[in-house]
Amino acid sequence: MSALRSFFYLLLKFPIFLWVKCRIVADELSEKLTDSESKPIFYIVRHRSASDLLALQKACKKLALPDPLSTVMIKGQAFPRTICIDTPSSLLFSRKASSAMQQSLSILNAHEQDENLAAQLIPASLVWGRKPTIEKHNTGVREVLAEQESPSWLKKFFIVLFLGRNTLVRLSEPLSIRYMTDKFGSDESNAHKLLRVARFHFHRQKVAATGPRLMHRQQMFKTLLKNPSIVRLMEDERQAKGISKEAIEKQALIIMDEIAGDYREGMIRIGERVLHWLWNRLYSGINVNNANTLRELADDGQEIIYVPCHRSHMDYLLLTYIIYQQGLVTPRIAAGINLNFWPAGPIFRKAGAFFIRRSFKGNRMYSAIFREYLGLLFERGYSVKYYSEGGRSRTGKLLEPKTGMLAMTIQSLLRGINRPLTLVPVYLGYEHVMEVGTYYKELSGSKKQNESIFGVLKAIKNLRNYGKGFVNFGTPININQFLNQHVENWKDDIDPVDPQKPSWLTPSVNLLANQVMVAINKCAALNGVSLVAMVLHATENKALPRSELEYLLNFFLSLQKAVPYSDELTIPEVSGSALLADVIALKKVIVDKDSCGDIISLGDFAALEMRYYRNNVLHAYILPALICRLLDRTAKISHEGIHTQIQQFIVLLKNDLFLWQCSTEVTKQIDNILHFLSQENIAKQTKAGFWSLVENTETQNYVQVLGEVADETLQRFAIITSLATRLAPISKNELSEKAVSIAKRLSVVNNINAPEFIDKKAQSTLINSMKEQEIFAQDDSGKLTPNSTLITLKENVNNLVDISVLQSIAR
Asked: Would you tell me the crossing angle of helices 639-657 and 760-772 to the nearest 10 degrees?
């Protein structure tokens, strides 16, 4: 670097340091990444700009990476560490030629000459302002500045001045120059290819960070009014109602105005600052996992559709905030019309929310406009977020998915959208959900309260430490690939003008919706509150000595670490004692002291509240719980007998708990869990292949507590099998109603204070699964009757349920 340029950078360094604020996102940068003589680190950037390089220098210093303004010595020759692809525009003269080509060739040639050299090239993308380009001619100053590809020094000055406080520096995974040289050579064409790929890479990353070209709300309305489906529907409505074209258009515009978002990047920036303050006040940390998957999808040009579970109104804010923090543009969010109240509604709308009614029935125009609006979002490349459950879970378990949004998503593909549509399941978990108290009031029969500004103010007033939050991104589901696998010749139904509803749509949507919910549960997050809730609810009085509770927490953790529910499950790295200390600090449990030590228990309301968090992760423990219950209630049982019974239970529970394991996976899991119990000297297997518990009071207690986790599930099976055999023949609806009645009685007699235990939908889901698996026979009228499979299931269940419960059911 010349002395003059060095002096210029030195002058700029202090103001850049003071003014520019960088959000740094590093894509899977290896912790083993080191700068050495044989493996030097180089950077490649889009523009040769002093402000870009100084901002990059600032980011690299934070990440303990080499200075991008330094040089690399290879065989006594000095190489600039940073390759700048383009030079800036000039105010008066033609643009100077870039030296990027010569730099790239020199580095490639150095690798050709030294086979031990293996340089690493890190693409560094800098986005000033993260403001999308605007699709209109009368753009403001800031939009004009943000759109410059290679701005002159004067325009760059204003860009830094106006947008420097919101700068994104993204460092991508290093590229191996040795690999490139060995595979493609070191000639000029390879250097051209390197620069061409880098340009495209930076373009994709800018679109991922700022979003596609922004379409104004009124432009959207004009586009929708010209949509063939909407034009045809308006004409039908006009003729049917005998009104003018202007009147029907006015009705359509009112609906569009109700639905459409009004995205403003400025609102996102304000929201980020407010939410940053809020999260620091509310949570002790937000744990994010697998976010790199999102950036890979965005870089590949895929249309991302976020499909999270729905626990709380916090979901809208938290997930949007995390996506923005990960260097990606925030999605357009499908929000319930109940949230469109002043002043929250206008704020949410400017943050990208669009509003959806609870029901479309009887309103063809609303249905068509909403469907085409959603299709337009996909067509324009905007990422979208919606909740498959439709509403917030009141019990903590995933709800049965609503399929309307997914159906409209697939119908958008039938309009001929070229971009791949990819669903990203998201698990959202909390150590405290502020609405839990109201959830149980609603489940107990209280009327659901409408959202209002007063509710928001009350929530803000009650802000306190809510522990940790968890955002886990699951394995993406490419809708195009899903249809290729499950619907033969689905592309034959593509019609850009008037897509119809093909016969395969409903069953395919139902299957896809189930896969989404299963994928959400696969990437669940265990935490201290959910584990303490699970253990204490598995005890008779919901109380344990502190030392015993800590031992059990360690046992539950060790089990998941040895035999995880899935590879995507996140497990706390701390001990049971540390988890319990955090839960106590959150005031989730009661701590009583006596001469022997602390006793940890749940009060009446806390017991209700903690069930919610237990249910968040119940699916992760149901399989080992069933195995432990079987071992605890059976003196000895064959290896094959364990597999037969557990496989049957898991098949019947798959739809209720959205379990992912196929029969092969369940077989592996059963064997691995038994191996773990054997390794821990909890269970043993004879030479003849029979399993039994080791005679050890302490370890038998572990098994009893874990087995108790499945108790209420088994009681539901006992109720259904008992009624189905005693009252046969019986219709499915009648069986469901009778099962709920018995469950309500049991909940009083056996002190099961669990609203989900008496949930009619949960009972119906189990009955439907049993019917699908042919546990029941059916007579000529379609009523359910017992068969040998039901009798066997009943015998197995009765062996695992307490005799007092069976007697209550029999009475």
From this structure: 130
